[in-house]
Structures are given as C-alpha cells and as structure tokens.
C-alpha cells in the first residue's frame, strides 16, 4: 500500500513539474469579499501567432455587478493592459458581451452579473514572435451593489513556445464570445432627432414584439426614458429620446436588442448612420387628416355614439326654428366641446406615451372606474330627461341667461360625444389614429382636430344650412314628450356599460355600480323634490334635511368607488367557445410555421362595433362552417382590459384600437379585413387569395 501511495505522489510531482497543468492558464486570483478575479488564456502554448486571445474573469458575489463599455448613468467599464517579455505595455481590446439593463433610483446602467468573462486580444511584439512568452497583465474594474468599490490587480503567467493546444479555459472564453452582439443583417439608420429606423423585407411584425437600443458611448441618449417601438411589414422604427436637445450629426454605434414573441432576445451590433426617414406622417399629413375627417363623419353612425344621439336630437329640435345666429352659436359650442376633448386626448396620449405607457385608442374603457363613472353620468342624464329632477335646457327661455345655459349644454354634449365614441374605430380611422399616436404633438393635434370636425359636421349641417334646418319641426309640447322618450336610449347605454363592468370580472366594482344606481336614483328624486318645495317656498327644514342626506349618499358612493373600484386590476379570464383559441403570439408563430391558416379577431367587450361584427358575421353559421371546412384556427384576443401582447400586435399592424381582423392563409401574405363586417365579406376574404 505504501508503494502505491509513493507512486501516486511521484506522478503528481511529475505532472506539476512538467510544462502542462490543467490550471496552468488560469492565473492566481485576486480575491475580495465581493469578487474573485483571474486571467484566462485560450491556449497552453504559444505557436508563433501575432494575436493572442485572453479573458478577464470576474466571479461576482450575489447582488454585485460590474459594467459594460457604456456603464450608463453611473459606473465605469473595466480596462486591461498587457506587457509581454518586459516590452512596452499595450491596452487590451475587450470584446464586450451583450449586457443587461439595470434601473435603480431613476438611473439606468448596463451591467454584468454572476461569472463574467470579458475576452480581449493582445498583439505579440515582432521581436518576441517564436519565443517563450511571459505576461504581466494589469486590470482595473468597478463592482457595485449598495456601494461601489474600484478594484485592480496584476496577473503573471507564462506561455512556453510549442504546438498550440486548447486550454481547459478556452471553452469559457468562446462561450463569452458567443454572447457578443451579432452583426446586424439590416442597414440601420437614425434621424437627427433620434428615430432609429430599418427598412428591409425581413422586418416582420409577428417576430418583433419589443426592441431597445444601447449606445456604446454615454451621454447620447436619455438612458431611462422609454423607447417607443413601431413595426409594420418592412419597416421598424424606434423612438430614442436624446440626452440633449441637439440634433445628431455623427453615426451612432451600439447594440440593438430585439425580442420575439417567445421572449427570446437577439443582440445586434449596429452603426446607425444619420439619415432622414420619409414616414407617412411626414409625407402624407393631408392624407392622415383627410382620413381622420372621414372617419369622424362615419363615427356618427357607429353604435358607440348612440348614447349621445338622444342629446343631439334634443338640441337640434330646440334650435330648429331659432334665428340663424343662435344656430351658429349652438354649432360652435357643440364643435368646441368636441375639439376640446380631442385636443385634451392628444395631450394625454402623447404625455402618457412619453412616460412609457403603451396605450391605445379607447384605453379608458379598459378601466372599470371610468366605465362606472360614465354609466352613472348617463343614468343621471336619463333621469333628468324623465323629469325626476330638472336641470334647465332652456327650451322656452329666450333671455341671455337661457342662451348661455343652452350653449353650455351644447358644449357638454360635444364633450360627452367624444368620451363615448372612443371605444369604436370607424372606417378610415385606423391609419389616422396610428399616425396621431406615433407622431409629434402638433401633428397629433391636427389629426384629432380633423376627426373632431368630421364628428361635428352632421350637427353643423342640420343647424346652420337653411335647407337642412327646414326639415326640423317647430317647437311645441312634443319636445317634452321627445325629451322623455330619448331617456330610454340612454338607459340602454347604461345597461351596455353595466355589462362592460361585469365583463371586467370585478365583483365589488359591479356591486358599487348597482349601488350607485340606487343611490343616484334617490339623490335625483330628492333634488327634484327640493326643487318643487323651493318653488313653493315651503318646508325649509325639510329641504335642508334632504340636502344633508344627498351629501351623505354622495360621500358613501365616492368612498365605495375609491376603496373598491379605482385600485382594482383584476385580470379577465375570457370564456371562449370550444372551437376558439385564445390569442398568443407564441401559438400564432407555431401555427404559421406549420403553414396552418389562422383567423384573428382582436376585440373588447366595450367595443359595440366588435360585438355587432361578431353576431352578424363571425358567429354566423356560414362563417363558422367555412372555418371548420377550411381547417382555419379561429383565434380571439380580448382587449377589454389592457394586455401588452395584444397592444403590441395592434401596433405592429398599424392600429391603435379594436376591432382588428386578420386572416393568415396557409401560404401567402396576411390579409386585413374591413372594420365593418358581414358574413359575405368574411367569406370573400377566406376564398379570394388575391386580396
């Protein structure tokens, strides 16, 4: 036994005294509490090459990180220098792997964590080629957690001359090199204002769900600000907020990260040349405004606007036989209400997008709180129309105060028309909305103003054009009857909005909504009673008592809304039919790879146009049989509450709201269907491959 033990020790001595050691080319470590750092070599021997590959290895403790070439808003990149056979020192050229992003306390950094290897190259001096090499490598790096600690170390190792052999550490260096950004397959450009863009056939919206740009130099972009992505077939744009309000003049080097539907990320090394982009917003502004104007006109025919048709009819009947100046002022007030609401929406959209929110058309209906407040408002208006209480619309007043009240009513009607119209997108509106929500503020305002003018046009024509005004009947008792009759379309709208709240699947929100109907009904009745008693000048104490009771009920409703509605973010679990598949970017990609036809329906419970299309066309026997016979997968995306994947899909196809219908044939390009459907329209798109 002793002989075998001595033999074993002898073999160990022979191996360690020879020219090869399994750990020979990973140097001794510089060790601290936060990391352990060494130098690696990809070969155990030097075979006369001019260029050698080494690696700086930093094993970081949990919670610590080090930095990329551009550390971001804080930090410092690592650096190395090498001296070979006591010759002059040279800087090592680090080949930086792709970093991670880290946001802390309003600052953005580009970092590495865990076992970090930074490959770098050094050149052998001409007079040392073919000799044994002795390396002295100096490195500096910064590690951070709650605090940042600068560190440095000097590493010494030898590479004897001889036949090159792969060291055990070569695979680690190669693994680090594989994480380097790949060369971009596309020509990448950036405008002087910071819009990075790619025009290439290979750009596919279905394969790009997210992207961000990381420049190699700091101080170029605002690291923390959101970068807004827009993708359509053949075109990718990425809005990159610049660090300073100064136009770019020189190409920008960096890494473009692209994420697909399966959350796989690819990093591409790009050199973005400064070049302008001719976008639809720039070249076809008149077309966008014209489309918005036509869409606004057609929006008057959309189901979403039905709730305010009652108020518009009432207003028209009121001014039908008035002097032309009165009709002009009424039209101006109604149009001003519409335009004010649209302009506020433009500011809100641009502001929220600038803060990083990815919102689309009709986003407010994704909030149960907004839907409840709108439902309560329409309920109160309907009770007013029924005469439960009286807010004067000045139907018989001719004095200045009466006129002022009438114009205020017209202005309010315009505001309300826009609020309830936003769940729907009429024909021609899709391209206009997409342009408005991805354009500078002034262009967004122009597009929304065009849409508002289109929405107001029918009312203005009936009010101001004599030939149209003659159609309107003279005022009389019938107006009071019409006012009461028109309350019922508003009550139907309340029923629809209550159904939308129910679709949010938030039980307490639905309970608060129903409680509100009871409470507001009592409040409106009490107000009407107080008005009657006040006109008669009696029961002053009784009026005060009911006034206090009204305030208490409103406080209870407000408290219930605050505690049980405004902060609920429940996720809808849509119940779909057996032959319907829930939308998923991953499922869609797999089906397309297998060349299976897919029909996608992007919808929402608050979109009446979507509901009508579903009942009239998509759920019809003809269409469902066509799906079955042609083996078409019917996929539904429900946007009743915000879903980022659906939002990204809509945006990738140039839309900012629902409905959106797309048919992917087994072979060939996808086909986008109109926003108003019939069963025959759907069947024609399923059968006509030329569309």
Automatic annotation (TrEMBL):
The chain crosses the membrane at residues 285-311, 332-356, 368-391, 411-435, 441-465, 485-502, 508-530, 542-565. GO terms for molecular function: protein-disulfide reductase activity. It is found in: Membrane. Pfam families: DsbD_N (PF11412), DsbD_TM (PF02683), Thioredoxin_7 (PF13899). Residues 287-498 form the Cytochrome C biogenesis protein transmembrane domain. This is Thiol:disulfide interchange protein DsbD. GO terms for biological process: cell redox homeostasis; cytochrome complex assembly. It comes from Commensalibacter papalotli. Residues 53-157 form the Thiol:disulfide interchange protein DsbD N-terminal domain. Keywords: Cytochrome c-type biogenesis, Membrane, Transmembrane, Transmembrane helix.
